[in-house]
Amino acid sequence: MTASTDARMEPVKIGSLTCTPLHPTFAAEVTGIDFSKPVSDEQIKDVIAAQERFGVTVYRNTALDDKRHVEFSRQLGELEHVPKFSGPKTVLRFAYTELFDAGNTDINGNIVQKGTRRWWYNKGNALWHTDSSFNQHRSKFSALLAHAVPKEGGNTNFADVRHAFRDMPEEKKAELRPLVLEHNLWHSRRVAAPDEYQAPTEYELAAKPPARHKLVQTAPDGGETLFIAAHAEYVVGWSKEDSQKLIWDLINYCTQPKYTLSLQWHQPGDLVIWDNRQTMHTATPFSDQMEVRDMRRTTVFDDGPFAWGVPEKPIDQIHEKPIDVPAVAVPA
Ligand code: OGA
Ligand code: MN
Questions:
Q1: Whose CA is nearest to atom 8 of ligand 1?
Q2: Which positions fall inside the TauD/TfdA-like domain (predicted)?
């Protein structure tokens, strides 16, 4: 999976940033930002340009804390708030409602025990996905910051969906262009944990209804890409069986080794930003009952022309702001 070094892997300058490619078609490790100070608006433009060009950008050893992680993320756009799916009795782990808990500890920092609902929920992260595709207002960037990393394993793998789509034969692309997918968070939970999520609670279902987005979309560079994830349950108008066959054929196609990269987290402070509009990602195993992996994520709303997909009802009737009860933070 590790790409070899060749002429295309030379560092690229984007304004004040130096981007060293990690794969022949996407992803780069970026230097040139001093995270000990607020990042200037000028540099933010370079961050976004690097992001849109590479899809995945890696900033090592930033020493960011929660406050500065959130402040930096706000400079990239409006942030999602943590969805509150778990009912009124639980409380958030972090002071910022914009911080999703993508780690394996509970509110007290103890390891989440195998077999608990939260543990099963996290299983869904080990399917190839793009964050928040189950929201009618989709997200463009995710910024995941490591606070504690395991000694071994726990890489995050990424796929260059944009490049994979562009390699498809023209007839296949033409077949896919008219299709709309229905994404449902509870579908991906059920795929990953069939018994636990056989019947999501009424509260969960009401808190997160499905959302619809076109399958073939325009990437930031103006070319075409796919918007696909394990959250996708139906091709609108198709049977479940036919839908799942196409969706998983496409996910498997896009995640062939030549389109993927396995990203190792080196230390606390490593920050990885990915573009949910043109990549997919997946968590990978580590000894999650022995070691703490503390990862915190901000998620930036898409503000482009495809942000609201193809909703079934007028967007002013869609309520996707956090439901007003305290609840435990869960990643997606
Ligand atoms: C996420 C996610 C994967 C990981 O935070 O959205 O999917 O490796 N994380 O933690
Ligand atoms: Mn994710």
A1: 283
A2: 20-299
